[in-house]
Design brief:
The protein is α/β, with parallel strands linked by helices and about 100 residues long. About 30% of the residues lie in helices and about 20% in strands. It has a single domain, classed as Rossmann fold. Helix 3 links the parallel strand 3 and strand 4.
């Protein structure tokens, strides 16, 4: 539970530089804390979670539902201790998602 409530390192997957986007709002809020914050976005920051150096306690995933599954798999490969998914569009994927 420490990884959720007192993480020492956080990776934000789906960070955005565009005001009004969820990834932007989360990034701005995370900047207020003293932990290591890693930005994961192919356009800036790290390309994938597996590119982030060291141990990641918490990954916050803010991407479309269609990409969540593969990103969670990357988090498992990276041995991220905890994951929070903030996404929409799962209903559109149907029952097999």
């Amino acid at each position: 539970m420490k990884a959720f409530f007192a993480p020492r390192s956080i990776a934000l997957i789906g960070a955005s530089k565009t005001r009004g986007k969820v990834g932007y709002s989360i990034w701005q809020n995370l900047k207020r804390y003293q932990q290591k914050i890693y930005v994961v976005n192919p356009k800036f920051g790290f390309k994938t979670i597996t590119d982030v150096p060291g141990v990641i306690d918490l990954a916050v995933i803010a991407v479309p539902a269609t990409t969540v599954r593969s990103i969670v798999a990357e988090c498992v490969a990276k041995k991220v201790k905890a994951v929070i998914v903030i996404s929409s569009g799962f209903a559109e994927l149907g029952e097999k998602a």
